[in-house]
Amino acid sequence: MRYRIAVLPGDGIGPEVTTEAVNVLRTVADRFGHDFEFHDALIGGAAIDATGVPLPPATLYACSGADAILLGAVGGPKWDDPAARVRPEQGLLGLRKRLELFANLRPVKPSPLLSNASPLKPEILQDVDLVVVRELTGGLYFGEQRREAITNGERATDTCTYTTGEIERVVRIAATTARTRRGKLTSVDKANVLETSRLWRQVTTRVVSEEFPDVELEHVLVDACAMMLITEPSRFDVVVTENLFGDILTDEAAVLAGSIGVLPSASLGSRQSSALLPIGLYEPIHGSAPAIAGRQVANPIGAILSAALLLRHSLGLEAEADAVETAISATLEEGIRTADIATNGAAASTAQVGAGVVRHLQSVRIPVTVWRGGPA
Ligand code: IPM
Ligand code: MG
After folding, report:
1. What local confidence, expressed as pLDDT, does residue 374 receive?
2. CA-angle at 104, arms to 100 and 107, nearest 5°
3. Of 11, 89, 252, 286, which is best to mutate to test ligand 1, by the most ligand atoms within 8 angstroms of its C-beta?
4. Reduced to 3 states, what is the DSSP secondary structure of residue 145?
5. Separation of 248 CA from ligand 2 center, angstroms?
6. What is the mean pLDDT of each run of 10 residues along the chain (376 residues)?
7. What is the reported pLDDT for 344?
């Protein structure tokens, strides 16, 4: 089967880490006999420089026709002028919105190989295996924004809006995810203060009790959740929350994994890929890290794990995704690590880590597929 993958390297360390993820996907195609067609496109600051806009029509076109999109990162000081009319981040937000990628899955399962890299005690990290499902196309990110002059300065306004439908659809994805795991769902809000949170809580309670009676639901306020993520992270299975809370909590959760450089994400909507699975946008959760860009020191594991999620969620290639994850562990075990997670001795470069993963994939045993009848 032929799959089309749009590749959007973006800015800063985006191109470096994306190169490694694409190398890994090429190796998977080669080893497992798939046909992946890659289409490179511009986004973010790179797109502003080349075309004047952060999400050019050609990029939208490449993404709309793809089964999955692999993205690096967007943003950087070059485009950071607060008065600028166009910003790199608009490219990413625009893409999420245009493709209606409303559910952002951010799995956090710290590797025991990296427990040294986290500032938390190993006993706190034990048994941590959680997924944050972050609502991605609503809330403050997409509400009306305004500035107006007042006496003594200006007034700035951001608005937070959620509809019943927007909450229902992301809660369904989260509850479905919980069903395939330990069956526990934590909904995070600020219902003691915000009206959107009260609607969120009401809708979540109804959807879970009517459609997912087998899923255990709890509600936790966002401030308490921020604390529990550090004090008792293993209590969480699936966490569902609105856009901005999810953005903040997942950077916090990255501390559990040892480095923000190792966390992947999958953004899914309701449009289907050729494998009849959701078309998704896959990106590491880290940013463009301009301070270290172009120096081959960025950790490519978040991007490579994002490629594994792409194989699993949009292409349905579970064994291939597992093989990539195993190859990453084997590489870490050999001590081939970038500076953010290196233990002793010299740190490896971005490309060396990528090459390590590719080498392990090349020696993986391919399971023999047995045809069991039915349509070929
Ligand atoms: C993320 C990033 C983005 C976000 C930025 C780059 C707009 O922080 O994906 O978490 O806030 O969603
Ligand atoms: Mg973020």
Report:
1. 55
2. 160
3. 89
4. strand
5. 6
6. 96 98 98 97 98 98 96 97 93 96 97 89 95 98 97 97 98 98 98 98 98 98 98 98 97 93 96 91 96 97 98 97 97 96 90 98 77 55
7. 77
Cβ–ligand 1 contact at 242 (below 6 Å) = no
Task: Say what the pTM is.
Answer: 0.94
Please report where in the chains the tokens 């699975």 appear, as a residue.
277
| CB 75 less than 6 A from any atom of ligand 1 | yes
pLDDT number for residue 370: 57
Measured from the CB, is residue 89 less than 6 Å from ligand 1? yes
DSSP labels, 45-78: HHHHHHHSSSS-HHHHHHHHT-SEEEEEE---GG
Ligand 1 atom at minimal distance to the Cα of residue 96: 12
Residue 170 vs residues 12, 67, 136, 175, 239: alpha-carbon distances, Å: 31, 21, 9, 9, 11
The Cα 134–Cα 138 span in angstroms is 10
Residue nearest to ligand 1 atom 6, measured at CA: 89
Q: How far is CA 33 from CA 1, 7, 27, 37, in A?
A: 9, 20, 10, 13
Q: Whose CA is nearest to atom 8 of ligand 1?
A: 247
What is residue 256's predicted lDDT score, i.e. its pLDDT? Answer: 95
The whole-number pLDDT of residue 115 equals 85
Q: What angle separates helix 195-211 from helix 164-179, to the nearest 10 degrees?
A: 50
- Kindly provide the residue ranges of all beta strands, DSSP E only, lying in 81-214, ordered along the sequence: 103-108, 130-135, 145-150, 153-158, 184-189
DSSP class of residue 278? E
- Asked if residue 131 lies in contact with residue 103, where contact means CB atoms within 8 angstroms, the answer is no
Active site residues: 141, 190, 223, 247, 251
Are 73 and 12 a contacting pair, CB within 8 Å? yes
Cβ atoms of residues 130 and 178 within 8 Å:
no
Q: Kindly state if the Cβ of 135 falls inside 6 Å of ligand 1.
A: no
